[in-house]
Amino acid sequence: MPAALWFALTVLLGAPEGGIWLPTSGRAGERSVQAIGAGGDSALYAAGGGVVYRLEPGAEWTRIGRYAPRLTWERTGEFVAHGDLPAALLRQVEADAERLIELPERADGVASLPRETMRAMLEEFVEEQADAPKSAYAVGSITSAPRGVWIATGAGLFRATKDGVSGPRADVHGPVHSVLNRKDETLVGTDDGLWRIPPDAPAVQVRGGQVTALTESEGNLFFLSDGRIFGGSTAEAAHPLDAPAPSPLAMAADPSGLYLATRFAVYRRQAGAWSLCANVPTTPTRLVTSEGILHALAADAVYLFSENCGQVSQATPPWPGGFVFTDVARLGGLVWAGSNEGVFIYTPLDADTSMSVQMEGYRRAVAGIPPLDVLVLRALEVHRLDAESTAADRLRPYAQLLPEVRGTLRYEPRRLEVFDQASRMTEIEVTKPKPDWTVMATWSIDFPCFLGFCTVSPIEYLEANSLVDDELVGEDGEIEEVDDPMTSEIVFDDEALSMTDAGGDARDDLEQLGLSMMAGDKKRNVVDRGKVVTQLRRLYQQRQNLLYRLWVQRSKDLQQRTTLLLSVEELDARLSAMTGLTIHSTGNTAGGETDK
Amino acid sequence: MKTWMLAAAIGLTLGPAVVHAEPTADSEAKKILARFENEPTINEVQQAALTYSAMHPEQYESMRTRSRFAAVLPELRLRVTQDKGDDQKQYQRYSETNAAAEPLSDTSTTNENLELQGEVKWRLNELVFNKYETSVVKEHRQVAKERQRILQSVTQVYFERRRAQVDMLLAPPGDAAGRTLAELKVAELTAELDGMTGGAFSRMVAER
């Protein structure tokens, strides 16, 4: 975002009402992020898919490092985790990938899996792992720290500044959920307990139990531990507090009070008493207080509160489809939201902005599946109409260079008896010859083959294709007319093929037939390939038109929108069937940067 | 203190804040479609149809490789021939004066020949190209085409049924006859899906 626009928005916006989420530019603007947060250096940080991004005022998002490894898949069938991270962490991610990614079984081995399929599987793995709290890819929160931020992840506590990412800290154990900066100490809530990090000293554990949220209000510390709220002046002195409702989910505080989110409500605690702040239609998973404003985050909305819970407005996703909010932050008077579609900024609603946001959403939705050329290549492979399949005999000239090797062993013992009646004597002759070995290598080289005149011999072709049952079946399931009548419904039995040894007219006829069939096959391949490409292009264009109607025209008619959503789903299913790829429009457009 | 009292008074008067959120067509559409989440997904139905029709082109994928690898093994030919024979020879001498024959020799001959022959033949050129590869590719292509036809059919019927279900929810027919016809259409499409999946569709619906 240009600097001028940043500052103009800062001036124009107070507590935004009636706004729209505007995508931010740069890498984190389009990639799934799990958490965002303002840093102590006045920059905004975001983390997701193993990558940490940073946004300075007036600049674009830039990638500054990784908190989880980059995962790749080798043709040998192994997953490899890369990154400047502890070896144990890399091995753990590799083991998780090995255990959780189910490779499709193929008779010719996993090495033949298409690159797009593996990439989609790796991205899906990273996205799923981001929701597993103990995974290295999960991010609990991003908290401001001097010159940067703390990043709480499933693999530990990381530190990010404009110079890069470091960690995880070896002295803090367990997946980290929350971090709180207090005077002269930093507190860290993990699965294993509450930890204190004094300045320039190793962390020490203060309490046990799972600590999922930490906050401070009027000098008192509050935290959620094992589903209960604790409060006190220090971590050691904290004691359980009464909660307004069971199962508190999130907590935040500012000078106006302590806030608590339950399944469908937000409460405020003032002077030791809880009061209902607002009922919300969907479950808030995170509360953020900043610049005197409370923000509650649910998967499908951000709730923006006015001061003292006087009013609350709902900011819904900018686009239809599977948009999911993941975090919210406030910096420079602006509200920022992280999502599975990237980081967004809340701006006043006007027609131009609205149209540009919708067009951006449309662009991303179109780009959410592989481009047409990749789909065409995959579809041709699935239909065995790709170059490799249709040129199965391309190695034939080189095959001639290898001989036919024949080895023969002959052994012929003999015995001869001659009985003479007169002398009554018998003569016996026994011959025991040594075995006779013969080894012979024969090369039969057809030199024109090397000049490109080597096609399958018609007779040989008939032998290999003795049963021909070709029918051209159209996409609509109807049997189409065969262009060459010689190529259809011909069955060769053994008797007919035995004539190949014969000479004369019969052999000539068979050769002619074989040639016709070969020509017919090649022609049919060309026709079929054209049909696949045409059908795929038609489906792809239909999908683009439907997405335009969904994302940009945005009919308010419920039946029409439902039908449009169904139609997109159907087109995705048909494209998936044709290409063998998993295509799903309403899913996420981008996961982690796994194999780049 | 006055400020605190004023705030408390406003709080008491207004009560908790209320979220003003109009349901959008998108969220409503998603809710409508979410009603069918207890039914099998299109992917599951496609897989069931392929399983039922035993249409697995993957089995051809290794056939070309195997056809070449087969050339490593030789063609073996063994031949055993046994030849037995008996023969008797008598030599006699006759003179011009004496009519009686004079025997010279009388022998019986027995011969027994055995021939063992073995032949192994490698067509090494088939390690690079086997003439049956073209046939395998062609068969594979036919199966892939048939598989595609099944997938397109099942996808079409699946979404036709889903549209009919959505129509019944969003624009239900006003009269009993219309409702019956609409229900019949869904039943017919369900039966068609069952036919394509060997009854797996209804089984999956019942299991959820």
Structure description:
The complex is a heterodimer of chains A (596) and B (208). Chain A has 596 residues and is of the alpha+beta class. Among the domains of chain A are: 175-241, Thrombin, subunit H (Beta Barrel); 380-396 and 446-530, no CATH class. In chain A, helix 5 packs antiparallel against helix 10 (505-553). The radius of gyration of chain A is 36 Å and the shape is elongated. Chain B has 208 residues and is α+β, with helices and mostly antiparallel strands. Chain B folds into two domains: 24-68 and 129-207, no CATH class; 75-124, no CATH class. Chain B is rod-shaped. The chains are: A alpha+beta (596), B alpha+beta (208). Strand 27 (312-315) of chain A pairs parallel with strand 1 (17-20) of chain B.
Please, what is the average pLDDT of chain B?
Answer: 82
Radius of gyration of chain A: 36 Å
- Give the helix proportion of chain B (percent range): 40-55%
Compute the number of helices of chain B. Answer: 8
Number of helix segments of chain A? 11
The largest β sheet of chain B comes out as: 2 strands, antiparallel
- Poorly predicted ranges of chain B (pLDDT <50, ≥5 residues)? 1-14
Mean pLDDT over the residues of chain A: 80
Strand order of the largest sheet of chain A: 1-30-29-28
β content of chain A, as a range?
25-35%
What is the strand tally of chain A?
38
Contiguous uncertain segments of 5+ residues of chain A? 1-16, 467-494, 587-596
**Major sheet of chain A: size, sense and barrel closure?**
4 strands, antiparallel
Q: Specify the overall morphology of chain A.
A: elongated
Q: Kindly report how far apart the N and C termini of chain B lie.
A: 60 Å
Could you say which overall geometry of chain B the principal axes of the C-alpha atoms support? rod-shaped
Largest interface: A-B, 94 and 85 residues
Give the arrangement of secondary structure elements:
The complex is a heterodimer of chains A (596) and B (208).
Chain A: H1 3-12, E1 19-23, E2 35-38, E3 44-48, E4 51-55, E5 62-66, E6 70-73, E7 79-82, H2 87-100, H3 115-130, E8 139-145, E9 148-153, E10 156-161, E11 164-166, E12 176-182, E13 185-190, E14 193-197, E15 204-207, E16 211-217, E17 220-225, E18 228-232, E19 239-241, E20 250-254, E21 257-261, E22 265-270, E23 273-279, E24 284-290, E25 293-298, E26 301-305, E27 312-315, E28 325-331, E29 334-339, E30 342-348, H4 351-367, H5 372-382, H6 387-390, H7 396-399, E31 404-411, E32 414-420, E33 425-431, E34 436-442, H8 458-464, E35 467-468, E36 472-473, E37 479-480, E38 490-491, H9 494-498, H10 505-553, H11 558-579
Antiparallel strand pairs in A: 1-30, 2-3, 3-4, 4-5, 6-7, 8-9, 9-10, 10-11, 12-13, 13-14, 14-15, 16-17, 17-18, 18-19, 20-21, 21-22, 22-23, 24-25, 25-26, 26-27, 28-29, 29-30, 31-34, 32-33, 35-38, 36-37
Chain B: H1 2-14, E1 17-20, H2 25-34, H3 42-52, H4 58-61, H5 63-69, E2 75-93, E3 102-123, H6 133-170, H7 176-197, H8 200-207
Antiparallel strand pairs in B: 2-3
Helix pairs in contact in B: 3-6, 6-7
